[in-house]
């Protein structure tokens, strides 16, 4: 069974509280999403493979380590875009794909409208990113699409998760680890996470 890892560092707790605050404006919200994404990324990349390399310091020659993996970041549009910058701060050479899906407000089911991935995605460690893991339908469909393209190394990163969404991912994709800044109480009747932080896309981009 894939792990649910709650990255509960004090800095993350502090920043998530600011994200929840209805008084946090769009500019600050965007900055906070990037910052929290960077902190989650740090934990999610803990097991990336490394190789020993030679390096010369100003004092002497020694050995060090280099990442021995190709990285791919795949945001689920549109809100996932807000996390990309924070991920790229730690992994600037990663390639970025995009999966466009939205949740039908009536059925709460995911609807796909755009997909474009790096041509060598099947050889990459892929990090699927989306701020909110609510019902889990959209994330599960995105992961299924990646698997259909031959991708086998997948992790899911989110800011806020709900029990329903985690259960969906673990049922559909039991090998996928989930990294979340906060695991919240439940979904309400409209499929929003409680207490959550509202619609992440609207708060990122100033739309309603």
List the topology elements.
Elements: E1 4-6, H1 10-20, H2 26-44, E2 50-56, E3 61-67, E4 71-77, H3 81-90, E5 95-96, E6 98-103, E7 110-116, E8 125-129, E9 132-133, H4 137-148, E10 153-161, H5 163-172, E11 177-183, E12 186-187, E13 193-194, H6 200-205
Helix pairs in contact: 1-2, 2-3
Structure commentary:
It is a single chain. A hairpin with a 6-residue loop joins strand 6 and strand 7 (110-116). Helix 2 packs across helix 3. The termini are far apart. The chain has one domain (4-205): Rossmann fold (3-Layer(aba) Sandwich), CATH 3.40.50. It has helices at residues 10-20, 26-44, 81-90, 137-148, 163-172, 200-205; strands spanning 4-6, 50-56, 61-67, 71-77, 95-96, 98-103, 110-116, 125-129, 132-133, 153-161, 177-183, 186-187, 193-194. The chain contains 6 helices and 13 strands. The mean pLDDT is 94. With 208 residues, the chain is of the alpha/beta class. Strands 1, 4, 5, 6, 7, 8, 9, 10 and 11 form a 9-stranded mixed sheet that branches. The radius of gyration is 17 Å and the shape is globular.
* End-to-end Cα distance: 37 Å
Question: Number of helical segments?
Answer: 6
Please give the largest β-sheet.
9 strands, mixed
Just give the CATH class.
Alpha Beta
CATH topology-level name: Rossmann fold
What is the share of helical residues?
25-40%
Query: Would you report the number of β strands?
Result: 13
> Mean pLDDT, as a whole number?
94
Give the structural class.
alpha/beta
The CATH architecture term is 3-Layer(aba) Sandwich
């Amino acid at each position: 069974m894939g792990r649910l890892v709650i990255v509960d560092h004090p800095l993350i707790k502090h920043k998530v509280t600011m994200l929840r605050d209805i008084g946090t404006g769009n500019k600050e919200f965007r900055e906070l999403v990037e910052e929290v994404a960077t902190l989650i990324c740090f934990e999610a990349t803990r097991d990336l493979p490394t190789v020993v390399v030679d390096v010369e310091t100003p004092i002497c020659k020694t050995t060090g380590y280099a990442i021995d993996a190709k990285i791919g970041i795949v945001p689920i549009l549109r809100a996932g875009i807000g996390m990309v910058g924070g991920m790229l701060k730690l992994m600037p050479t990663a390639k970025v794909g995009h999966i466009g899906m939205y949740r039908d407000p009536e059925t709460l089911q995911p609807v796909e409208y755009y997909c474009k991935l790096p041509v060598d995605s099947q050889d990459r460690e892929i990090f699927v990113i989306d701020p909110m893991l609510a019902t889990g339908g959209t994330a599960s469909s995105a992961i299924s699409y990646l698997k259909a393209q031959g991708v086998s190394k997948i992790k899911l990163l989110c800011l806020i998760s709900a029990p329903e969404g985690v259960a969906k991912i673990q049922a559909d994709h039991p090998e996928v680890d989930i990294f979340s800044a906060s695991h919240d109480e439940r979904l309400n009747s409209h499929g929003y996470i409680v207490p959550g932080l509202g619609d992440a896309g609207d708060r990122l981009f100033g739309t309603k």
